[in-house]
Amino acid sequence: MISRFLSLSFIYIVLFLGGYVALEYTLSHIIIDEKPTNEKPLYTIYLKSNGAHTDIVLPIKSDVIDWSEFFDAKDTLSKRDDFSYIAIGWGDKGFYLDTPEWKDLKLKTAIVAMIGVGEAALHITYYDDIKTDNLTKPLLITSSQYHAIVKRVKNSLKGEHPIYIDTTAQYGVNDAFYGAKGSYSLLHTCNTWTNDTLREAGMRHAFWVAFDGGLVDSRSSL
To answer: Closest by alpha carbon to 174, among 70, 27, 76, 81?
Structure first.
């Protein structure tokens, strides 16, 4: 009886995951084009993936915003304040802080993330320069689109101002974590947040994504 229950449970889990992946692939490759505008693109930003997680990379200083006056670079281990770009990503706090590599993933962390009951965080990474490749795509945007991205980032934070997460779980010497609203789940992943940010800015985006593939592919013709 127990073995039959376990067998059925395994089959249901496999069917669910297979359906989830198939649905994600289908919806992530339905591309919604950029909203028409008479504005000229003035800024180059980047969509950057590490093969699983996506960030939006922005120039630190522009006439829209000076990110160095919003996020404090002294929160990084390097304490440097002379970077050119800032990468912003959203994700599950437990994944960010407790899972530096996939081999470190704990069952509890995975379950909390999947069912959407954990806390979220913004991960900020600073760069001197950005090189384009198959996983790093340049995006030309207007002033209105940049303002929309700024609004989205600020609205994703837990407070009116960034709340630094004091941790030793940095990925390098030039990154930091801040408290964020929302919860990671199978329906709202780190890549969903990136896609929704592009959507709110009226930029080209996928219908829905969970993984990075649809996002990266949506920019493949640029």
So the answer is: 76
Q: Give residues with Cβ within 8 angstroms of 82, minimum separation 6.
A: none
Q: Are 60 and 99 in contact (CB under 8 A)?
A: no
Whole-number pLDDT of residue 114: 74
Decide: 6 and 193 in contact? Cβ < 8 Å.
no
Cβ atoms of 210 and 191 within 8 Å: the answer is yes
* pLDDT < 50 stretches in the chain: 221-222
Residues contacting 114, CB < 8 A, separation 6+:
185, 186
pLDDT value at residue 4: 66
Phi, psi angle pair for 31, to nearest 5°:
-100, 130
| Alpha-carbon span 29 to 207, nearest angstrom | 7
- Determine which helix (DSSP H) or strand (DSSP E) holds 86, and give its type and residue range: strand 85-92
pLDDT attached to residue 99: 74
Burial class of residue 39 (count of CB atoms within 10 Å of its CB; 0-12, 13-18, 19+): exposed
DSSP lists the bridge partners of residue 54 as 49
pLDDT at 101: 64
Structure tokens at 18: 């297979």
If phi > 0 it is left, if psi is from -120 to 50 it is alpha, else beta; for residue 202 that is: left
Helix (H) or strand (E) holding 138: strand 136-141
Q: Which residue in 100, 66, 63, 94 sits closest to 175, CA to CA?
A: 100
Q: DSSP class of residue 187?
A: S
The ranges assigned to domains in the chain are 2-218
